[in-house]
Amino acid sequence: MIKRRLKRFIHFLQRENLARVLGILIVLVLMSAAALAYFEPSIGYVDALWWSIVTMTTVGYGDISPATLGGRVVASIIMFLGIGIIGTFTATIAGIFVEKKLREERGMSSFEFEQHIILCEWNSRAKEILRELRSDERCEQTPIVLIADIDSKPVEDEFLYFIRGNVNEDNLNRANVGKATTVIILGKDNLDDSARDAQVVLTTLAVESMNRDAYTIVELVDERNVRHCERANADEIIVGSEFSSKLLSRAALDHGISKVISELLSSNIGNELNLVALPGKLAGKPFLEVFTAMKSEKNVIILAVQKSGQKKLISNPPVDLQLNSGDALIVISPTNVDS
To answer: Taking 70 as the threshold, does the pLDDT of residue 299 lie above it?
Structure first.
């Protein structure tokens, strides 16, 4: 590990032309120290080395100073050369950071995050997804890598990282999909419905083949393509048109339901939906007892249960359903709830 990192550091110095500047700087420090020690018998080489570094960096403590003509000539040379070389070195370092920032803004960088989120494609829905994620305290500083074929990073977000291009295996590797916890796959708005869903399915296949442990959430237009995403092992499938239609029809029958749903789906207002782990002290107890305890102790309402190791949710569980350690609860809560 250390040897590999050392090789990468040496390669970095060579690639950025820092090796030559750094080499000249070291040689100048060593030679000037030797020259000063030669002309100044009262100054040893170690002290001369200290003097050379202090003089070249223009710190100038004044604790050591040459008294002979030869020593002063060496000092004069170091003063003029040192300013130029240190300035060149500083400018090179600054240029590296500026170039790195520009590469990130233009989507040309690769990232090595772990436990991060990958967002595929950028559109109005992606912007809203990002806003909602950032409004939740659990995700305020979570690294989110955006892969999209746009010119530059679309919004100012310190923890949003951009990769320019289509969502393919190369760019997924650049986003380090193998270490991601969640991948959100959206469709391209400039494609027709069939091509858009087909691209989503192909992206899902690519993500699942590269990281089966990542939780994939996909957006479809046509509900007939749900089975294809299921075969691709997508964890959660959302059909936008179907969801909207069902919500509209339910609001027509039962007025006000859409307002409740909007509140639950937003992290900014009122109550919200959360997935929390079953508290250890409630493991082994029936659902009704857990429901009562969660409401009285944490002021939350349990809507569904996800049994340990299973993707399927049990909505409105029976009162005698036994809950065990590792189970998760879908709850309505005023704030994020700790287990």
So the answer is: yes
Residues 209 and 122 in one domain: yes
Looking up tokens 């059909």 gives 239
Q: What is the pLDDT of residue 339?
A: 45
Task: Tell me, rounded to whole angstroms, the distance of Cα 191 from its chain centroid.
Answer: 28
Rounded to whole angstroms, the Cα distance separating 186 from 163 reads: 15
Domain contains 96: yes
336/186 Cα distance (integer angstroms) = 26
Total Cβ atoms within 10 A of residue 220? 24
| pLDDT for position 163 | 93
Q: Residue 281 is which amino acid?
A: K
- The total number of structural domains in the chain stands at 3
Residues 140 and 94: beta-carbon distance below 8 Å: no
Give yes or no for residue 269 having a pLDDT over 90.
Answer: no
8 A C-beta contact, residue 256 and residue 274: no
For 176: left if phi > 0, alpha if psi spans -120 to 50, otherwise beta; the answer is: left
- The answer to whether residues 44 and 145 belong to one domain is no
pLDDT beyond 60 at 336: no
Residue 329 token pair = 């609860």
CATH of the domain at 182: 3.40.50.720
Terminal Cα-to-Cα distance of the chain (whole angstroms) = 38
- Supply the range of the domain harboring residue 157: 117-243
pTM of the predicted structure, to 2 decimals: 0.63
Among 54, 78, 105, the domain boundary falls at 105
